[in-house]
Design goal:
This protein is an alpha+beta fold and about 425 residues long. The protein folds into two domains: about 5-90, OB fold (Dihydrolipoamide Acetyltransferase, E2P) (Beta Barrel); about 125-420, Bira Bifunctional Protein, Domain 2 (BirA Bifunctional Protein, domain 2, 2-Layer Sandwich). The chain contains twelve helices and 16 strands. The strands form three sheets. It has an eight-stranded mixed sheet, sandwiched between helices. A five-stranded mixed beta barrel has the order 1-2-3-5-4. Helix 4 crosses helix 6 and helix 8 (about 275-290) packs across helix 9. The protein is elongated and about 80 Å long. The structure holds aspartyl-adenosine-5'-monophosphate.
Amino acid sequence: MTRTFISEIKGLDRKEVILKGWIHKIKSFKDFAFVMLRDKTGVVQLIVEDEDLLKELKLEMSVEVKGRVEENTKAPGGVEVKADKITIIGKSYYELLPFSINGRDINASLEKQLDYRTISLRRLDRRAVFRVQEEIIEAFRTYLKNNKFSEIHTPKIIATETEGGSEVFTVNYFGRRTFLAQSPQFYKQMMVGAGFERVFEIGHAYRAELHNTWRHLNEYVSLDVEMGFIEDENDLMDLEEGFVKYLFKHLNNTCKKELEMCGVNLAKVDDIPRINLLEAQEILLKEYGKKSPVGNIDAEGEALFSQYVKEKYNSDFVFLTKYPASKRPVYTMPDDKLEGMTKSFDLIYKGLEITTGGQRIHDYEMLKDNMIKFGCNPDDFDYYLESFKYGMPPHGGFAIGLERITMKILDLDNIREATLLPRDINRVTP
Ligand code: AMO
């Protein structure tokens, strides 16, 4: 007899089954007990009468159950299993669980939940976050493959920084100073030029952020896209808007139970407003008296502006466009109509930046000149620049932070809740 998953027992009335899983809850009565058994697909009620066995059972042990399925409208989910034999196959060695796995609330700090990550993930509501995250990735991959994108995997140990700034980890590579990739930026562009035309990557990115905030990690998953032969950055915003629409439909189809568990209702996404950064700054000043830093909007401004967009356009999303060249990396394409600005954008979702993107400089001479203007030595980037000598097409792309979009979709308060095993300034274990 092979193992049956809990999700498969409905409809097997009176059949013998073998189930495997963890002891989720025990409710004892005079002559028997209801033992809730949990596996990756759900929870089912077992009826256990063997008193000696019941004395041995402890929450979270793993067990194998041989029993008979009984459909019963009074049982949770309309089905239960009369257990004939339960074998303990994974013993427990704890005295007290660190927190509740079967209760409505966990009643433990986020730090404690992360310290005991494999235990907190046993909670259905904590694991639901990662079921949703898995489907975000699935949707990203399917949507892009349907649009002729190829999946690539690029190195995370790299010779030069790609995003500028000081947020870069160094790696001692056989005595040579190298870096952990802040993003696959250069390689995704190079692969467009190598003939793939349209590429995407789902991979880790590293940022040596010195601060501990609700929205920053030191290692995060970047959903990267790069597309050749574009007209301008609007093609990229069209692509991302199409993805978000597809994603919400996909999640409503595949994660109904998990969204419900997290108390989330995902409304259909309409067209996303595209607003020039300077205009957004003026609106912030006029409507909220909020001053913005030169060429940017800070976290408070992002939250206020989202509020404005929600009221005016009934949208949780907004593209901010045309950031100044001084605030964007060296590879960003300047805007030919707006002096000092670039063909770039951010996507803000419920008050948080979840994406940066834009058109890139594809002309070899122009890119080399821009590097000099930015104070970089083009020789350090020869491996990157080389690919621009052979007819690099106009191109651009964007990157979505996986944990950020997961956090916002599920209305979580801290990015670590949407990270399986977070790396932050204080944490490198588990
Ligand atoms: P950027 O640096 O803005 O752009 O990063 C893109 C997106 O990645 C996420 N992100 C982070 N998430 C968690 N913790 C962090 N420390 C962190 N840093 C960034 C955010 C952000 O919007 N190469 C460009 C993208 C491109 O133009 O294609 C880049 O990396 O969601």
